[in-house]
């Protein structure tokens, strides 16, 4: 799967897709059927869900694939990016936000300091990193322009400018790769080219697998007794 560049999007429903349909200790059940997608398929839909349907009358379960869109406007949680630690001034930003005087209860003080530190880091991030994807695009444009100038008017000064532009692009690409690496929580790197595309696919896979497709309410004995009381002791 890794060599082919395909991902398992997970499933909902029964845990197994095949059974030998025997009884007792001779019965064997496995998850033999999987729905695999590549990176291009991830771009077709925001939500891809796979449901294991009942096996009867076959010994294999059919897989039902659903493509749908999802609008998610909820606030995003704060996540610390490891790439921020490449800037030594981050410690000063955190220290300044944490040392602010707050006269409240101890728990309120802690919450206020954490909130102030979060806002300070957000502001600092916009000033020093900004949108890392826009930075990569801008760096690529600068390198392209420097290459064209070097091709037409070769000089020592233009060579220096091209080297600087290439260094900025390498740094921007490294930051982008570190960002996706952390988001994907991958423990290893693929050999060869940049891994940002691979990490991006892993992040999309994690999001798809983390979607809650349905909630099942399990009725307990106490809940049933309470329902009977609400109905005046009459059972439905």
Q: Would you give an account of this structure?
A:
The structure is a single chain. This protein is mainly α and 236 residues long. Helix content is 47%, strand content 10%. It has seven helices and seven strands. It has helices spanning 39-42, 90-98, 106-128, 132-152, 156-184, 196-209, 221-230; strands at residues 6-8, 12-13, 18-19, 29-30, 36-38, 47-52, 63-68. A three-stranded mixed β-sheet has the order 2-6-7, with no helix packed on it. Helix 2 runs antiparallel to helix 3, helix 4 (132-152) runs antiparallel to helix 5 (156-184) and helix 5 (156-184) runs parallel beside helix 6 (196-209). The protein starts with 5 loop residues before the first strand and ends in a 6-residue tail after the last helix. The model is unreliable at 186-193 (pLDDT under 50).
